[in-house]
Amino acid sequence: MKTSLDHLPDAKQRELKRVVEILFAEFEDALAGRNAPHRKAGRILKIVLFGSYARRDWVDDPVGGYKSDYDLLVVVNHAELTDVADYWVKADDHLLREYEIAHGLTAPANFIVHDLTDVNKQLKKGRPFFVNLVRDGIALYEAPDHPLARPEQLSAKDALAEAQDHYDQWFSSAEEFLAGAEFHRSRAASKIAAFNLHQATERFYHCVLLVLTLYSPKSHKLNFLRSQAEQLAPEVVAAWPRETRPSRRAWELLRRAYVEARYSKHYRITAEELAWLSERVAALRDIVRVICERHLNPR
Questions:
Q1: Can you give the pLDDT at residue 49?
Q2: Fewest C-beta atoms under 10 Å: which of 61, 154, 202, 206?
Q3: Taking a C-beta distance cutoff of 8 angstroms, is the pair 258, 225 a contact?
C-alpha cells in the first residue's frame, strides 16, 4: 500500500496528521479501565486514507458549497473494538468539533472501523470497495507484521447477483419511508414526516453504495453517506442544492431528524421546509434508480 502524501499541500498533510493523533488519543481513552484481555490489548493496526484525497480528485467549491471529506479506514485487532458506541463516539465528536468549532481541519473527517480479519475476508471475497481501497488507499499508519490479504477477483455474475439483491431490498425500503413521509405530511405530523424523510434518504444512499460497491458503512450519518455516494456517483450531487442558506438549513434539519425529530420537544420544521425536502428526496430517488438500473442492466 502507498504511504506518500506528497500530492497533498503541506497544510492538508498536517491536518491528516492531526486526525491520526485524535483517533489514537480517543481510542486509547476509550480502552482505559477495560479489563477484558482483548480490550486491554486493543490496538489500532492501520489507518488508511481512501476516497478523493487518496485518488487526487478532491473538490473544494466554496461557491457551490461542495467539499470533499477526508475518508479513513481504521483497522483494529479485534472485532468487538469496531463497536462505534463503545469505542469511537468520542473520536467522532472530537473530529467534528475540530472541523466545525476549532477550525483545525478545512474538511470534515469521517472514518469507518473494521477488524483485520474482516478486512482480509472482504479482500479474499473480492469485494470492490475493499479491493479499490487497497489499490488506491494511502497508509497513514501501519503496525508491523499485520499484512493485508491479496485481493481476489469476484466474478461479474456473482457481483451482479449480489448487487441486485441489495437493490431489491434497499430501494423498496426507501420508497416505503418516502411514502410514509407523504402520509404524515398530509396529517401535519411534521416530526414523524421528517424522521421518515431521513430514513428514506439514508436508505437511498445505502442502496446506491451497496449496488455499486457491495459495501456501505453502518452509519445513520447523512453527511457521511452523502459524501460517500457523491464521490462514487457524482450524479447524486444534483439532488441537494446547497448554494442558499434555506437549502442548507433544510438539509441540516433533515440530518438532525434521526435523533431530534423523535426525542426533542424543541425540534421544529415548517410545512414549506418539509415540502422542499420531500421534493429533494424524490429527486434523489429518481437519480438513484437510474444509476442502479444502469449498473444492473449493462448493455
A1: 98
A2: 61
A3: no
- CATH level 2 (architecture), domain 156-296: Up-down Bundle (1.20)
Cell numbers for 266, please give them: 424543541
* Strand duo 109-115 + 70-76: pairing: parallel
Angle at alpha carbon of residue 278, lines to 275 and 281, rounded to 5°: 150
Q: Where are the alpha helices (DSSP H) in the chain?
A: 10-31, 37-40, 52-55, 84-87, 89-100, 116-124, 128-136, 156-186, 190-213, 222-232, 245-263, 271-296
- In the numeric block, which cell numbers belong to residue 282? 424524490
| Nearby residues of 123 by Cβ (< 8 Å), 6 or more positions away | 130, 131, 134, 148, 149, 150, 151, 152
- CA 196 to centroid of chain Cα atoms: 19
User: What's the pTM?
Assistant: 0.90
pLDDT band at residue 77 under the 50/70/90 scheme: very high
Angle value at C-alpha 50, between 213 and 198, nearest 5 degrees: 60
- Kindly indicate whether the domain formed by 10-142 is annotated with CATH number 2.40.50.840: no
Give per-residue pLDDT as tens, 175-218.
Answer: 999 999 999 999 999 999 999 999 999 999 999 999 999 999 99
